[in-house]
Amino acid sequence: MPTKTLLTPRWILTTLLALVGVGVLIRLGIWQLDRLEQRREFNTRVMAQIYAPEMELKATNLALPLYDMEYRSVVVRGEYDHSQQVLLKNQAYDNQIGYHLLTPLIITGTDQAILVDRGWIPLDAGEQLEAFDEPGVVTVHGLLRRPQTQNDFGRLPDPTLAPGQTRLQAWSIVNVDRLQLQMSDRLLPAYIAEAPSAAWAKMPYRQMAVPEISEGPHFGYAIQWFTFAAILALGYPVFVWRQINDTRSDTERAQVIKEWKEV
Length: 263
What we know:
Layout: H1 9-50, E1 55-57, E2 73-80, E3 86-93, E4 96-107, E5 112-122, E6 137-145, E7 170-171, H2 176-180, E8 186-194, H3 218-262
Parallel strand pairs: 1-2, 3-7, 5-8
Antiparallel strand pairs: 2-4, 2-6, 3-4, 4-5, 6-8
Helix pairs in contact: 1-3
């Protein structure tokens, strides 16, 4: 293949596609490095809170930036407002699907409340929530959690109220801002995942998930994408060179045959 053949539309398009491919692969590698940096920042933030001493939530410190203190161990005393509790859908326990019970806890000595994820109940218990009431003053130990505004899957918010409906009983995320619209209690901008306790062996079954502290596979993925980019960037010129040499060999062979026939 003569060098001028590389200037045909077919080869120009092929070369452009190869260059775009290299650029995309490099960008994917950079994206994975960005994800790695985000994960490291998350790990640093979470570790700082996990290893901090347990904090008592009380009237004098409710103005703290609780949203930024996710995974801090806390203890709080108060009384549950069971009339305002709601359900968190699609929660699993021992291979069974059910709900988590979210109940506002009015903090002792204040007029403010914090939402508490009290744990798991089965699907068929969703209409009998009074069976899980915890009356009187209670002491709750758990982890602070950030509320959500979108689902992890689909990135869709909870459905809006139907005509004539005043509240949603079952939610797919813990959206404190939207829950506040249907609750009379003044909610703090975080919620508590209540910790399991040996002294509590009945429903709601406490579930307190602690995040995995690792860097994940992002660095390995970045190396893969950069390797693919290098293979394409170095391999494409080799492919073109071989195509040129193969074409030249075919041309020379054809010329020899032509000359032989003319003899």
